[in-house]
Write a structure and sequence with these properties.
Blueprint: H1 3-23, H2 28-43, H3 45-49, H4 69-74, E1 78-80, H5 83-96, H6 102-111, E2 113-115, H7 123-134, E3 141-144, H8 149-164, H9 187-196, E4 200-206, E5 211-218, H10 222-232, E6 235-237
Antiparallel strand pairs: 1-2, 3-5, 4-5, 4-6
Length: about 240
């Protein structure tokens, strides 16, 4: 049951209890029982609707791939990545992803292909990102230039917790105007500065587009991460100071 159906059922339940009390059970005892039923239904929202009242919303996936992952791997026009490109993604995985998730992610990287009829030269990255988002694996985070700052915060927090078992108090996104996006001045710099105070930092893969391929890692991993990114065929850059 999704959220929409959950609220429809809630309205029907309230109306039904109201009519039953009015026409069949006018006593206060039924009012107490009916109120208890509604409270129980509200309290168990996650069990009925699949999501709680105050859970953080997972950011929308940035997808520019022209095919689903299955189509991507099975397409006749697909060509395997070069040995160095594949090695780059595998090296990035070993640097950025907790070892417990390597068995799930490594086979996907080994199957990555490019399309010889596609105008998007960076399709492997988007296909990989779609898979990791679907599987809740914090790896390379793709953010559109219009993405909300809270999405950036969610991505950073998830990477730190999942891959490094670390929690860092990050700056609030409320210091920018409402509806501000990650492309606003000093947004990435603000969070990068905070991370560096704790031995972490942000890095980026240059996709050549108007989005951001975000990496979160320890500062002492920088040389290895930069080397791995270059092997994949993408450029590497950081926030300018």
């Amino acid at each position: 049951m999704g959220n929409r159906m959950y609220f429809i059922v809630l309205i029907i339940l309230i109306v039904a209890l109201f009519l039953l009390r009015m026409y069949f059970f006018p006593g206060d005892k039924f009012l107490f029982v009916g109120g208890g039923i509604i409270v129980f239904y509200l309290w168990c929202k996650k069990e009925f609707a699949g999501s709680g009242w105050f859970e953080k919303k997972k950011p929308a996936v940035v997808s520019k791939a022209a095919h689903t992952f299955d189509q991507f791997t099975d397409a006749v026009v697909a060509e395997p990545l070069s040995v160095s490109e594949k090695q780059g993604f595998l090296q990035l995985m070993r640097e950025l992803v907790t070892p417990a998730l390597h068995p799930k992610l490594e086979p996907v990287i080994n199957q990555l292909k490019t399309f010889n009829d596609s105008n998007d030269a960076f399709e492997p990255l988007y296909s990989l990102s779609n898979f990791t988002d679907d599987e809740d694996i914090a790896f390379i985070s793709l953010l559109d230039w219009k993405s909300a700052i809270e999405d950036l915060v969610w991505r950073i927090e998830t990477s730190l917790k999942q891959n490094y078992d670390t929690v860092i108090g990050l700056p609030s996104d409320t210091q920018w105007e409402p509806n501000a996006s990650v492309s606003y001045d000093n947004v990435f710099k603000t969070y990068d500065n905070t991370l560096r105070q704790h031995g972490f930092q942000l890095g980026f893969m240059n996709t050549g587009g108007d989005d951001y391929a975000l990496l979160v890692f320890k500062t002492d991993q920088k040389e290895r991460v930069e080397e791995a990114v270059k092997l994949t065929g993408y450029g590497y850059y950081e926030i300018s100071y």
